Structure formats: C-alpha cells, structure tokens
Amino acid sequence: MKITKPNRVTRTFTQQLVAEPSRVFPLLCPVREADWIEDWEPFVVFSDSGVAERDCVFITGAEPINAIWYITRHEPANYFIEMVKISPTVTACKLTIQLRPAERGSEAMVTYTHTSLGAEGDAFVASFTEGYYHQVMREWEARINHYLTHGSILRTQSNR
Q1: FRET pair for 23, CA 20 to 30 Å: which of 16, 59, 107, 144?
Q2: CA–CA separation, 118 vs 95, rounded Å?
C-alpha cells in the first residue's frame, strides 16, 4: 500500500446571477445544462427522475479520458449541490455549488477541488491557476445569465 500526500488545488468563485435561486437551481443539472451550455452533451445520464438528483451519475467526454460524475448531495430546499468527477488516472474532483438570494437575483458560490491521480493530473493541477479559474467562472456566469435573460444559448463567435 502506498500512501502519499495529495497534489491538490481548491478554487472558489462567487458568481452574480440575474435570477432568484429557485430559477437557477434546476439548471445545475446534467440534462438541463444543455439548455444553456453550448455543445453540452453527456454520453449518458443515469437518473430515476430524468434530471439531477442524489446518486445521479453521468459521463462526459474529456481529454485524455472520459469523465464520470456522481451527484453526492442534491438539496433543492437549500439550493446546494455537490458532485464528484473522476477522470481515471488524471484527477478526482469535488464540485460544490451553493446558491443564495442576492439583491439582484442570486449568488452562486462555486468551489472545485482537484486532486491529481498521476503525472497528467499533476500538470492539470499546476495549470488550474486562480486566473484560469476566474476566466472559466466568468464565462459560465455569462452563459447562464444570458440564458436566464434571453432563454437561449450564448453562442461563441465561430458558431453564430
């Protein structure tokens, strides 16, 4: 048995969203994300209800290997969701999203914790900088706000 200190990074960003938590929370779902994320298409979603729920599992395409996601906590009354994403031999990731009412809609505190599972994971953890994470979170914020405001996907320039 080998026990080793993890190579891990945690990043948190608070998004400002234009709708109340009750409108936003259902969109934090492997099925409903297709409504607001361009080209989002999990290969398969294992769900009793057909949408996000505790113990929902889904698989997404990723490089260098597909990722397996598992929703470990799904608390609509508290506007909280937690899931684990495993990219075998690369990283294990925990994602939490906590929504709360704000003056103009809601805030979403989004936290990713990535733990390396090997050399490729070490490279990923090193590249997961604060600047990179903020850029990704601002893009996500713009996409969900566009959907909440216009009811359509924000398309990239090349796909317009």
Answers
A1: 59
A2: 20
